[in-house]
Amino acid sequence: MLIYFLIFLQFILLLIGIGFVLYIGFIMISFKNTVPYVPTAKKVIQKMIAAAHIQEGDKAVDLGSGTGRIIFAVAKKYPIEVIGVEYSCLLYFASKIKSVLKRKKGKVKIIRADFNHYPLKNVNVVFCFLTLEGLSDIQNKLNLELMPGARIISYLFPLKKKDEFQEYKIPMPDGKKVKYIFVYTKLARNA
Ligand SMILES: C[S@@+](CC[C@H](N)C(=O)[O-])C[C@H]1O[C@@H](n2cnc3c(N)ncnc32)[C@H](O)[C@@H]1O
């Protein structure tokens, strides 16, 4: 009996090992892209959510939602609509599975798409953890589509052109370095 249990245990450990190697391999390969997959730390997510000042009726989106860490953390706290937009098939399916398992107050939607083409007209809160290049690619979209009052919460990277936004940044001490969460509020056109 013990021998079967040990074989079963070895099999499970092997599966975990293969999963881990695939996960690390996937992360390394994603570094070839403009915006690689790097999950946001939980304590950063909590600060990002607090900075968003979410209110009833808001619609939030995470551009490049990965496995859905941000969207599920928002939906756990607030009964609002939260959308994750992710183009990686693997990450999209991982977040779909999480969606079944997670408890949530909000309504979560996960969309497999390129966020450069996702309409932001009715979105009030945009979360993103991209790169300078990734942000610069969507700068015009953010300028044109977001309504006054909409907030952008960007981890690590600032917007290049800030004329249409009010900016403040939240320091996040990380060892000897300080990282920032950049918070933008869209201004009214004639402000
Ligand atoms: C730095 S990760 C952040 C993941 C997630 N937001 C989090 O906080 O854990 C950036 C994510 O953006 C996705 N991504 C990059 N470019 C994209 C694009 N054009 N459209 C949709 N997703 C994209 C990547 O696959 C990756 O999952």
UniProtKB/TrEMBL annotation:
Residue ranges of every copy of the Methyltransferase domain listed in the record: 55-143
Regions crossing the membrane: 6-29
Example of a GO biological process term: methylation
Keyword line: Membrane, Methyltransferase, S-adenosyl-L-methionine, Transferase, Transmembrane, Transmembrane helix
Gene3D superfamilies named among the record's database cross-references: Vaccinia Virus protein VP39
Gene Ontology MF terms in the entry: protein-lysine N-methyltransferase activity
Name assigned to this protein: Methyltransferase domain-containing protein
Record organism: Candidatus Kerfeldbacteria bacterium CG_4_10_14_0_8_um_filter_42_10
